[in-house]
């Protein structure tokens, strides 16, 4: 029998509740047992009963409820010159980086009061991104994004989650691209406590 953490069980129950009215029920919880049909994971029908496939099941469970909705601050198309990358020329010459940020927080009070003290200034988040991208070099874009996310969540307790996208428009690939990059979503409960 597979044992799940309290958080995993909570996500399973939330997921079951959200889809129960849907014509295609994708998962079920029955007397503490949980399974996900093959079409959702490309693994065996009872994936959670197989130790071999348990990691895929847990990955699916962690993803349940990860979509963030609600009010958010939006910063798009931030451009900075930085020295991130694993190649020597990236560290020596640097390159342009494109950053998008979503910061989820309740904006009702600011909407009602029309006061900057009831929200976070866009320029404050912009400054965090600028400091990270123009600061100490990182090998990976994943690390750049993680540092931005951690800094925002650590500094502003009213932010419940962030989405950070870091793009490189000038990459050595055979073909035309607007940019290549990474996107991460971090929640206060899973990021700040682990930093």
Automatic annotation (TrEMBL):
It holds the Pfam family FolB. Signal peptide: none annotated. Its EC number is 4.1.2.25. It catalyses: 7,8-dihydroneopterin = 6-hydroxymethyl-7,8-dihydropterin + glycolaldehyde. Residues 73-186 form the Dihydroneopterin aldolase/epimerase domain. InterPro entries: Dihydroneopterin_aldolase (IPR006156), FolB_dom (IPR006157), GTP-CH-I_C/QueF (IPR043133). One of its GO terms (molecular function) is dihydroneopterin aldolase activity. GO terms for biological process: folic acid biosynthetic process; tetrahydrofolate biosynthetic process. Coiled coil: none annotated. Catalyzes the conversion of 7,8-dihydroneopterin to 6-hydroxymethyl-7,8-dihydropterin. Catalyzes the conversion of 7,8-dihydroneopterin into 6-hydroxymethyl-7,8-dihydropterin, a biosynthetic precursor of the vitamin tetrahydrofolate. Can use L-threo-dihydroneopterin and D-erythro-dihydroneopterin as substrates for the formation of 6-hydroxymethyldihydropterin, but it can also catalyze the epimerization of carbon 2' of dihydroneopterin and dihydromonapterin. Homooctamer. Forms a hollow cylinder assembled from two ring-shaped tetramers. Belongs to the DHNA family. This is 7,8-dihydroneopterin aldolase. It comes from Castilleja foliolosa.
